[in-house]
Amino acid sequence: MAKQPEQESILDMFAKLGSEMKLPKMDVEAVLSHHRKNLEALEKSARAAAAGASSVAATQREALRQTLSEVAEMTRNFAAGEAQDFMTRQAEFARKSFEAAVKNAGEVADIVRKSGTEAVEILRERVEEAVKEVRAGVENRKDGR
After folding, report:
1. Interatomic CA distance for residues 37 and 57, integer angstroms
2. How far is CA 90 from the centre of its chain?
3. How far apart are CA 87 and CA 83, in angstroms?
4. pLDDT recorded at residue 5
5. How far is CA 136 from CA 64, 85, 139, in A?
6. Distance linking the first and last C-alpha atoms of the chain
7. Which of 20, 27, 70, 92 holds its CA 20 to 30 A away from the CA of 143?
8. More confident site: 18 or 140
9. SS3 label, residue 7
10. Pair 33, 96: CB distance under 8 Å
C-alpha cells in the first residue's frame, strides 16, 4: 500500500495562507490562550447558574416537605376535634400555607437573582479582560513588537 503524504495541520494551513497573503504573523498561543480563558469563564458562569438552580430546588423541596407535614398534622387532628374546631384549624393552616408560599417565593426569587447576577458578572469580567487583551495586542503591533 502506498504511503500517503502527511496532511498539514489546520494551523499550518492558516500560517501558510497568512504568509502568502503577506498578513502579519499571528501569535497562535496568545489566540488559544484568549479562547481558553473565554471557555473557562463560560464554564464558571454555568457552574454559578447550576448552583443557583440546585439551591432553588432545595428550597422548594423543603417548603413542600413542611407543607406536607402540616397537612398530615391537620389530618391527624381532624378526628379528635369538633367541626367548628376543624374549621378554625383549617383557616389557620390556610393562613400559614399562604405565608409560607409568599416567604418561599421571596427566597426563590432572591436565589435566582443572586445566581443570575453572579453568572453575568463572571462573563462581564471576562469580556473586560478580553477587550484589554485585544487592545494590548493592537498596541504591541503599533509599537512594532
Report:
1. 30
2. 41
3. 6
4. 60
5. 54, 76, 5
6. 49
7. 20
8. 140
9. coil
10. no
Q: Is the whole-model pTM more than 0.85?
A: no
The DSSP output letter for 130 is H
Q: Which residue has the higher pLDDT, 10 or 24?
A: 10
Q: Give the CA count within 13 Å in the CB-facing half-sphere of 92.
A: 9
Q: Which of 59, 56, 47 has its CA nearest to residue 112?
A: 56
Q: What Rg value do the Cα atoms of the chain yield, rounded?
A: 31
Residue type, 132: K
For residues 115 and 55, the answer to whether their CB atoms sit within 8 Å is: yes
